[in-house]
Amino acid sequence: MVVRTSGVSPAALSPPGRRRLGWWTRAAVRAGLATAGLSRGLRFGAGSIIGGRVTLALDRQALRRLATGRRVVLVSGTNGKTTTSHLVAAAVRTAGPVAHNAGGSNMADGAVAALAEAPDAEYAVLEVDELHVAAVAQAVDPAVVVLLNLTRDQLDRATEVGAIASALGRALAQHPGTVVVANADDPMVVSAATAAPGATRTVWVAAGASWLGDATTCPRCGCTLTFTAFHWECECGLARPTPDWWIDGSKACSADAVLPLDIQLPGQVNVSNATMALAAAQAVGVPVDRAASALREVDVVAGRYAVVHRGSQDLRLLLAKNPAGWAGMSSMLSEPRPLLIIINAREADGRDTSWLWDVNFEQFTCRQVVASGERAADLGVRLSYAGLEHQTVPDPLAALATLPPGQVDVVANYTAFHQFRRRLGREQKVAR
Amino acid sequence: MSPDSTVAIGLLLPDVLGTYSDTGNATILAQRLRWRGIPAEIVTITARDTPPTSCAVYLLGGGEDTAQLFAADWLRRHPELRLAMEASAVTLAVCAGLQVLGQSMTDTRGKHYPGLELLDITTAPGRQRSVGEVISTCAIPGVGSLTGFENHRGITTLGPGTTALGRVVTGTGNGTTEPGTRQRGEGVLTERVIGTYLHGPVLARNPALADHILQKITGQSLAPLELPDQAALRATYL
Ligand SMILES: [Zn+2]
């Protein structure tokens, strides 16, 4: 397979160096792994975060040392990080063992834990929080950085989207050898990826943007952007780059390849994620047809898209944590099945529930809806104004009891999703 | 009100100042009118449009720093809109939307930018961002406690004779005391403008403030509305 895209040569061509961990790093990793095992044993969750933290506390250079000699792909963006990193990992695994923070712990500690748990993996695929890309990239010197999209999420983290984009741009400029796989349809991403022109090599993917609520003004100059069907531009010169990869229905296309994706994951947003994954896999030297077959095998991603049988109901579990996430999911929610929505507002969710007002709940008329979670009342008020008759039952399992047998769509935001899965898991253990 | 008695709700610059979901305030005003049998329409006014001057109410929301300066510039280029805000309509302005209506804004480098000069306030950046829940006691009789979520770095100083929308109970609000008092203020209240730092959106959390605006623009006293979950929502935050 010849790579045509703007003279990008696969980063795989450079041979991996040998990683020699000093005795102190080895001890720090052992301490971290032991803590992670202990934490898992005591059911404190997956344990990886705490284990990674212990390792980092003992050796602040642990991330750099653990990453040395590996070909690392970082996956970042507001929405789709977890899913896309699973897709990239599946594709890269066809070339060799992969270290991957599959559980979604996406800061430095999660990266350390993933690398420590797979010491011999030649590749690493790391989902990284948008605010932590600079620090992680500095440590791991990535072969590839994937930038999916940048929209608002957890505004209470006190950083505006435009500021995140410029910080990412500065971070990428520090890594001239890195290939950036970037979404050409997201003005924030383009602004970040072109902040240091010539410094990085970019593969542009026309991955689409399901929600442009934060992107109608130019991230560079503040003017309003002009959008047409396949293009956007600003007076200041920022414009949609010519894509190297684009999507035609369910096919991923480049100048050299037309690949039917036929992925199991639902929705157009996952066709986009898969195309980004394909471009990323190619950038580390995986042949695209082999990568595409691997993508087809992925069906459940950290519990998302799973169908869970419970009593007389089949629950389809979806995670959406901001307006863009909901917009990307609307094609998966077109069937008028009963819908359980669970909303929390803990730190990991963002404390401010205002974002519910930018979700198009109006589309869910003509179906049974239950508002649930720790912020069920916020959601309930929003649904009333959207003209939806609904019930409000804060406890999610009690809420399920108000819905009929058969298929039920369950959409939850971050901590609500994980709480709900844990409760389902406990129930099923008891039943056994 | 327009001749066919449909109340026009002007949503100003949702494409520029739409970052904090304050556009929900438009939905809330429209629905609360419709539920009482009064026809209402939301008129979306983007940066490309020439703003109509006949709306009964204009809404401005929060946005990021570059967007805010663009919005201030846009507003200054439409003096006819300013005239409507001053003379005929009621305006609800939130966060960046509040700041742009003032005399001036200062950025973190100390550079000054002119506002629309509709309100006698000035805004300069504080040492750190104020992020979190706010409770205030509203100066409008009968409205009671206001709840909302603030997320800004602005310190807003009110000119003499300008009244705050409320007195801060918890949170930061304007970050200054009301002129001539020791009370920490939140927002601004004039005859025709309600300005606030509260998101949520503010009218979702404070239906009494929504109805105050609606009674002002319709000239009618409106029947109370019982919305399911509304009491539980207020109990969450108050
Ligand atoms: Zn521009």
Strand content of chain B: 25-35%
Unique bound compounds: zinc ion
Please list the strands of the largest sheet of chain B in the order they lie side by side.
2-1-3-4-12-11
Residues in helices of chain B, as a percent range:
25-40%
| CATH domain class of the largest domain in chain A | Alpha Beta
Order of helices and strands of chain B: EHEEHHEHEEEEEEEEHHH
Major sheet of chain B: size, sense and barrel closure?
A: 6 strands, mixed
What is the CATH architecture descriptor of the largest domain in chain A?
3-Layer(aba) Sandwich
CATH level-four homologous superfamily name of chain B: Class I glutamine amidotransferase (GATase) domain
Per the CATH scheme, the topology name of the largest domain in chain A is UDP-N-acetylmuramoyl-L-alanine:D-glutamate ligase
Essential attributes:
heterodimer; A: alpha/beta; UDP-N-acetylmuramoyl-L-alanine:D-glutamate ligase; Protein-Tyrosine Phosphatase, Chain A; six-stranded parallel β-sheet; 14 helices; globular; B: 238 residues; alpha/beta; six-stranded mixed β-sheet; 12 strands; 26% helix; binds zinc ion
Description:
By secondary structure, chain A is of the alpha/beta class. Mean pLDDT of chain A is 87; it is low at 1-17. In chain A, 35% of the residues lie in helices and 17% in strands. Chain A contains 14 helices and 17 strands. In chain A, helix 1 packs antiparallel against helix 2 (48-58). Chain A is globular. Chain B is an alpha/beta fold and 238 residues long. Chain B contains 7 helices and 12 strands. The radius of gyration of chain B is 17 Å and the shape is globular. Classes of the chains: A alpha/beta (432), B alpha/beta (238). The interface between A and B is large, with 39 and 39 residues. Bound molecules: zinc ion. Residues 218, 220-221, 223, 234, 236, 238 of chain A line the site of zinc ion. Zinc ion binds at residues 218, 220-221, 223, 234, 236, 238 of chain A.
